[in-house]
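On clarity, I found the account of how folds are encoded harder to follow than it need be. For illustration, here is how one protein appears when written out as sequence plus structure tokens:

:::
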Amino acid sequence: MGNESIGNAGCSSAPTKMESAGKYPSLNFSDKLSVINALMEQDRIEIRERQEAVFRLTYLVVPGFLAIAGFSADHHNVKGLLILALLLILAIYLVSFFTFRKWLDDSRACQQIREEFYQQPDLLCSEDFTPIRPITEKDRELRFKDNALWLPFGVTVVSAVVLLTYIMLA
């Protein structure tokens, strides 16, 4: 243990060339491809999580609306408060839904950035390898739309309107 370098503890004993901070060795084609594959896998996971979040949100909000409407049947004296609660839950749902949609669109755009490396393999060979970069308008031209998310959104909004009408007329 005497003269071992702390910086090389656990590493091979072969001499290494130290470079200045901020300089990294150039990645070969295989390493770049591995980076792209790992990032694409993470993008897919994020897309699935965001889609599931929208569905879970809907599964929580609609029963909440039903509970408020059911509670209002026996408690006419707090009708105004229940209407306010329903509108507040609907507002929170709308903000959450559109936030999740924005995040989902960002995840899809990031995935398209990574897919460019497969569509244009010369990008993998270039010295300027940037798999993580800011999203541009070109990246937002999505090939896939998450239209399936509009069904739970529509169901939620329609149920809110119907139950709000029920509370007001009861």
